[in-house]
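Course assignment 3, question 2. Fill in each field.
Student: A.L.
Task: Predict the tertiary structure for the chain below.
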Amino acid sequence: MASMPEGPEALEGIVEVDDVARERLAVYVDLVRKWQTAKNLVAPAALDVLWSRHVADSAQALAALPEARRWVDIGSGAGFPGLVTAILIANDPQAEVHLVESNQRKAAFLRTVARELSLPVTVHPDRIESFAQRYADRLGSIDAVSARALASLPKLLDLAGPFLVRGATGVFHKGQDFASELAETTQSWAFDLLQHQSKTDPGGTIAVLRNVRHMRAETSRSA
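Answer field:
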């Protein structure tokens, strides 16, 4: 795979970006660099490739499910992909993005970006398990749950399960171990899977999981 451009043009061929979103993304990247020393948001080596390694890669979540407007992003970290998704759909009146990040310093950064860019974002400084149990019913219909570089697929479904079994679609960035993770996951979960080859990582996959249900629940219903 040829090296990607380092700037807004890194998103070409992945997702359409208007001038307002482009400006917001540029401010976001600047804020990551500004806060990096105090908050340790990303690996130091990533600072020179934020657009190609993080922004463009994150944009693939929305590209995989462009109709989704109500998102929950778990383990948000520095906001990849949650803040990128929020920026790209910010002008839609139906847009709503919930960022779940237990690290208080990173949660403070997420709130700062959301405030400065006037994004449709709510930051939840909470553990994913606790958040999911409390909010799966309270938030109502969620379109999608996203996660990037967070956990194995079986663990992701355990974490996001309360939303997924209520109808949300899982949109997960996965790496070269995806095949083995998938084999393990299908022992406990059933779902309809669509895979998109990553445009930023030769060994990466954007996995889209619909109609997620736990095998135990299906067994109970058929008994």
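Instructor remarks: The chain has one domain: 8-222. The longest strand covers residues 205-214.
Grade: pending
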